[in-house]
Design goal:
Strand content: under 5%
Shape: elongated
Radius of gyration: 21 Å
Distance between the termini: 85 Å
Structural class: mainly alpha
Helix content: over 70%
């Protein structure tokens, strides 16, 4: 009776909860094995469900991978936004946002591997899903840099194009550094964030003071 009762409870598990279990298993499998090598059999076994049930809920391996990308991208964006306190000065907001970014990547290495490597190397439509997430983070960072410039000058002296370019560069550096930090033993999220903050803020500070570097000749 105990076995039957357990099976009954399993069948009555809400669809949303069961689906999240499948997505959890898929993140781990895709993150560690890669999209091509991962099999639906492995994902189903790790989730504790049958393979037909995975197909019933998520249609195909491609759809499952897309669902994983969307869920993990949303979680990363939400973590960065939640890590920033709007009442803080602009540099403190950027620092807290970077710490939240690196902490999330470190705490979810399989998800980061999916977003940073797997989704990008397998082309459309996966790369497009990651591009949407990246653009949202770039827009957020653009606003932070723009606010820092206004704090420094009490005007909007820093050109919009410069702000947009700096945001793109900062996000790109953060992505590369997070991958390195996750693969390098002993590098904490705080250390990675401090490395990028020191690199970026020194340059931003000079730029906001009007001390621009320019090539000679």
């Amino acid at each position: 009776m105990g076995a039957d009762g357990g099976a009954g409870r399993s069948r009555r598990m809400p669809r949303a909860v069961r689906e999240q279990q499948m997505l959890d298993a898929a993140v781990r499998t895709f993150g560690r094995l890669g999209y091509r090598a991962a099999s639906m059999d492995e994902i189903a076994e790790l989730a504790g469900v049958s393979k037909p049930l995975v197909y019933l809920y998520l249609n195909s391996k491609e759809d499952l991978f897309t669902a994983v990308i969307r869920r993990e991208a949303r979680a990363l964006v939400e973590a960065v936004r939640a890590g920033v306190e709007p009442s803080l000065p602009a540099d403190a907001q950027l620092w807290s946002g970077l710490r939240a970014f690196f902490a999330h990547a470190a705490e979810h290495p399989d998800a980061w591997a999916v977003l940073h490597r797997q989704a990008r190397i397998h082309g459309e439509p996966f790369a497009a899903e990651v591009a949407v997430m990246r653009e949202e983070i770039v827009t957020f960072v653009t606003a932070l840099i723009g606010a820092a410039a206004r704090e420094a000058h009490a005007t909007d002296d820093l050109p919009t194009r410069d702000v947009a370019g700096l945001a793109q560069a900062l996000v790109g550096a953060a992505e590369s550094l997070a991958g390195w930090a996750n693969e390098t033993e002993g590098v904490s999220a705080k250390e990675a964030a401090a490395t990028l903050m020191n690199f970026a803020w020194a340059g931003l500070g000079n730029l906001m003071r009007g001390a621009r570097w320019s090539p000679q000749g």
